[in-house]
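Attaching the record inline, Q. Sequence:
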Amino acid sequence: MILTDQPWLEHPATRRVMAALETAGGSGCARFVGGCVRNALLGEAVDDVDIATVLRPEQTEQAIRAAGLKAVPTGLAHGTVTAVADRRPFEITTLRRDVSTDGRNATVAFTDDWAEDAARRDFRLNALYADRDGRVLDPTGEGVADARAGRIVFVGDPETRIREDYLRVLRFFRFFAWYGRGAPDPAGLAACAALAPGMVRLSAERVSKELMKLLAAKDPRAAMKAMAGAGVLARILPEAEVTSAFEAMVAIGDDPVARLMALVPAEEAAAVEISRRLRLPNAVRDRLTAAARALPEADLSMSEAAARSAVYRHGGGAVADALRLRLAAEPPREADARRLIAVAGTWTPPRLPVGGRDLSRLGVPPGPETGRLLKAFEASWIADDFPTDGHAERLSSLVNPPRG
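Structure, as predicted:
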């Protein structure tokens, strides 16, 4: 089998890197591996090009530099050197076999046996190689068939693969979300359920990164249901529930953060705790908490003026997120939600048009009264949908209310 119509395969940068390696190690010393081969077979986009080689890391680094390319020793202990050609990175790793593992880190030994290297990989559809001309090598004999059938099957014994790295529990569901069809592989699913407690060894960053990648899949609903059914979701996110609201959120859009919002309680305290425990990026934490604060004001029946009022208080992004949560819970209200989300996304809140100097000119000395009057003005201005004129009269009436 030969890969065809693959721009990344023919790109001059790719050719230069492969030529550098083969100059040092001879024809066939290096092959493309993993995702780029899998995605090429499936007609999916190829973002990263990884290469496996029989060359030792120091030989790889020397070969890349000898060709006038940049070599970055990104992981020499594990055999990895990153080559940069035409500003494109290529991760090049020496063929390996595991000597020992602790469920998180592995001690490896280098090898020149392609089958041995394939045997330590996670899933058969990831244990695929291709030479510089696109000829595919499938050492497990099932990788190509798995990719085409949408099967996520561990290489060899599932429990052995998982005990080598417990992150593979989450990767099983992530790859099922992205590439799986039908039901999950029974043996793999059973192993993930049985060994899920071992994920306690993983860092929060590794867990959250894998979770967000899963949620970014085109349709992660089946994977999330399978993960919940196997007891894996409760291990990493006990607050999560795969409800109809989550399923509706997947249909609304492909934003993984919005999908996470629909999985967990829409409460600020819960958002803070989840973000802390999973060490989510600050931007994700801030979106979760802001949406929770805005949710009480987000109503699919509210007017556009009320939507602008909410945006003024909470920000357009938070209101849009809160409205999506409402829409996920009330799917028939899509037209209302889209109209209000458009307001949240396009309306720019104005600045408060008056300040302490304006009050000073009306004879109000600086102090608590200034703050009280400004708050009263702001509340009246918001209630009237942010008028652009009449500010002096409005402020004067607050300072000197009419008698009567």
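Strands lie at 30-33, 49-53, 70-75, 80-85, 88-94, 96-101, 106-110, 129-130, 136-137. Residues 368-383 form the longest helix (16 residues).

More tomorrow.
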